Amino acid sequence: MLKRRRASSPRSNASGPQRTCVQCGAVREKGGLLRIAGKPGAGWAPDPGGKLPGRGIYLCLVGECVDRFAARIRTPKGGARWKIGVAGGELSDRLAASRHGGR
Ligand SMILES: [Zn+2]
């Protein structure tokens, strides 16, 4: 009977930096989240590669967080929360497109 145990490590689950999904509050590794980069008032853009400068908004890649966030920023209230403003509709469209544009 083979029953191997992996060496227990206190940080076995933390292989990278972790971020919090703004939509559901889940804490995940960066690779499991979609980053939206930008600055309040200056515009935001989906940043799947995590390379754009600026602040980041993070959303779960799985589940409905991206869809829900996109729906939220279409409303003035939702857009105001991140100072997305009138660009919310456009960003929302880009999020929808990025979801279907491969992974
Ligand atoms: Zn989430």
Summed up, what is this model?
By secondary structure, the chain is an alpha+beta fold.
Task: Supply the key terms.
103 residues; alpha+beta; Hypothetical Cytosolic Protein, Chain: A; three-stranded antiparallel beta sheet; two-stranded antiparallel sheet; 3 helices; 26% helix; elongated; binds zinc ion
Helix/strand order, N-terminal first: EEEEEHHH
Biggest beta sheet summary: 3 strands, antiparallel
Mean pLDDT: 83
Overall CATH architecture? 2-Layer Sandwich
Tell me what portion of residues adopts beta-strand conformation.
15-25%
CATH class: Alpha Beta
Taken together, the total number of domains comes to: 1
Q: How many strands? A: 5
Helicity range: 25-40%
**Coarse shape:** elongated
Output the strand order for the largest sheet. Answer: 4-3-5
Low-confidence stretches: none
Distance, first to last CA: 40 Å
Bound molecules: zinc ion
CATH topology: Hypothetical Cytosolic Protein, Chain: A
Task: Give an account of the 3D structure.
The structure is a single chain. The protein has helices at residues 65-72, 76-81, 88-100, and strands at residues 18-20, 27-29, 33-39, 43-46, 55-60. The mean pLDDT is 83. It contains three helices and five strands, in the order E-E-E-E-E-H-H-H. The protein is 26% helix and 22% strand. Strand 3 (33-39) and strand 4 form a beta hairpin. The relative contact order is 0.16. Strands 4-3-5 form a three-stranded antiparallel β-sheet. The chain is α+β, with helices and mostly antiparallel strands and 103 residues long. It has one domain: 2-Layer Sandwich (Hypothetical Cytosolic Protein, Chain: A). Helix 1 runs antiparallel to helix 3. Bound molecules: zinc ion. Zinc ion (ZN) binds next to strand 5. Zinc ion is lined by residues 21, 23-24, 26, 59-60, 65.
